[in-house]
Amino acid sequence: MQTRLSRFSILALLLTLWACNPKTSQMLYTVSPESKLKELGIELPVPEAPVANYVNAVRTGNLLYTAGKGPNRPDGSQVKGKVGKDLSIEEGYEAARLTAIQLIAVLKQELGDLSKVKRVVKVLGMVNAEGDFTQQPAVINGCSDLLVKVFGDRGKHARSAVGMGSLPGNIAVEIELIVEVQD
What we know:
By secondary structure, the chain is of the alpha+beta class. It has 5 helices and 5 strands; from the N terminus they run αααββαβαββ. A hairpin with a 2-residue loop joins strand 1 (57-60) and strand 2 (63-66). Helix 4 (89-111) runs parallel beside helix 5. The longest helix has 23 residues, at 89-111.
């Protein structure tokens, strides 16, 4: 029995092969992450240089691990305090969103082009809170929501949202990422 491939089947096969090629798959963003940031009115800051013996990110193979970042406002000040005590959940959400901007700035610095982000794999969100605070996921949603707005489905990730008795400098949140990247 002879099988004929329809034009549609051939086109679908070619598109699949094209999409699987790491050099062309970065073009599969319908809107580039940089364009999405501009649309959202977000200007990325220059990432701060570490003040100790570590770096902002480490790449091993196709994975990029970021150092933990905190909620820096555009004026350079930080969101400080315990969520649920000094800050509302909404203020914590905004702190996590500000932290996501810091993390995206690190990705941009490391990769040069945010379209090289193939997938946000994992988010570890730490919330400065009292022991009885249980709304850590609602706070870290500020980061998760922005990552999905900027990277679309590639921004959907596995996540841990945990409470901490304290964080460096009394910042409200600290978040780190693991990101799959392509050249």
